[in-house]
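WARN retry 2 of 3 for item q-0093 after timeout on previous attempt; input resubmitted unchanged.
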Amino acid sequence: MKKLIITLLAFAACCVAASAQTVESIRKDYNDVQANIKLMNDPDYPPKNRYSVSVEQMLGGSGQHNENVTMYFDEDEEYTGNSIRSIHFVTVNYNFAAMKYHEEYLFTESGVLEFVYGKDYMDGTEYEYRFYCNSNGVIKVIVNTKEMGEDKFKQAYAGAMTEKYKYSYNLFKDRAERYKKLFAAIEDSTYK
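OK item q-0093 returned
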């Protein structure tokens, strides 16, 4: 009985910690990941924990399409001879015709989507989306826009999730799930 109570308390603490994430804590996680990626890209730092997938194809109506997906992972070698890998960060760069897109997805250690950055185009306007999330959903949305020909983005919205941005968020969330599946497929087919 005592063990059950301790387990339930630990679970409750994890749930509270996950839902207590703030924009500041997510930004810290993001900056930590960026510092780690910079270190991995240093030629003098040999360990690399990432999978990369490149797609090159001709698409009717928009021409040559190039897509590069890089999935960074954490590795826990808690078990001798076995390692447990978990997706941590994904960057995606692709084009359709002359439009260039960039997306980033940050995950917690348990695989919960924590942050989404994405660029999109609509009716001559370039959009920059930032979605800060926890296990309960989106805690903050920041949207910047730039008209074609302008150099700088302007903040169009910052606040809680609204109906206006749910569609975009759901598209990015679906893509994040597809990248998690891609990571799992690569993981299942590689040496561990």
